[in-house]
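Quick one: structure tokens for this chain, please?
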Amino acid sequence: MTIETGLLFARLLDGVGGGKNLSWDEVKLWQPEQGVLWTHLEYTNPIVRQWIDKESGLDEITAGALLAEETRPRSLVTGNGLLLTLRGINPNPESDPSDMVAVRLWSDGTRIITTRRRSLQAASLLNEAIDKGLGPRSAGEFVEMLTDLMVVRMGDVVDGINEQVDDLEESVLSKQSYELRPLISELRRHAIGMRRYLAPQREAVSRLYNERLEWIGDLDRQRLRESADRTTRFIEDLDLIRERAVVVQEELISRLSEKMDRTMYMLSIVAAIFLPLGFLTGLLGINVGGIPGADYPLAFTIFCGALVVIVVIQIWVFKSRKWM
């Protein structure tokens, strides 16, 4: 990476899977007859912005799309040129799955320009494949391989979220609600965030294999269709994850409600038992004359025994009516 110029790497494809590294000056001097050129740029760099705006020969709409701060996946064909924006998984280990990294691509079949702000694993893997002679042989194959690499790693993330939902479903009967609630909310947020980008990405990729660009071959279109189908499956999995998370949350709420009902029921039973006892002790505890048994030595013992009998009778009545 050339930090000063914003050039991450530039490769001149040799048509058989390999490619030559080019410097920034060689990129500026490139001519179509030399072969397909791939230029990968850091779009926040002032030199890159100046080159794309003024020196690249791109129209205003394309240049603006390659330099856009926020963008959603889309594809746009103008003449023989393709403008494509895709989202991929953030490669950082502690990153949020829904915090997806964007790559912006433009190609006319002889030149490929990709821009990004954050590290993009798919571009690095593609560059390594070129070093090994296993890279794209044409611009059409480049688009197909980049799209496939962007999609492949999503499968690992979606499968990981699925496994977390499986664990939640198994632990909903054993763990406390305060432990599960944040986990459920986090999984739903991840699923919603990923689907936000995958749905338009599916449409963008699907549109590619229907476009009749002369530099995208039939085999490339078939592989793009496979990437679109795989993205569709991921979207369906994310929808299922959200539904399963809702079911787990409903089960958790049901457990909490059942526990609360059981607690309130026991409190009601206790209150019903002590209600007459409290009435009697309160009645006999008033400080006025004429209280029965006030001068009788065994009055307190008899009264306590009467209270015990009342409790026994109450419990018998409750059980006979199946209230407890």
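The CA atoms of residues 108 and 115 lie 16 Å apart.
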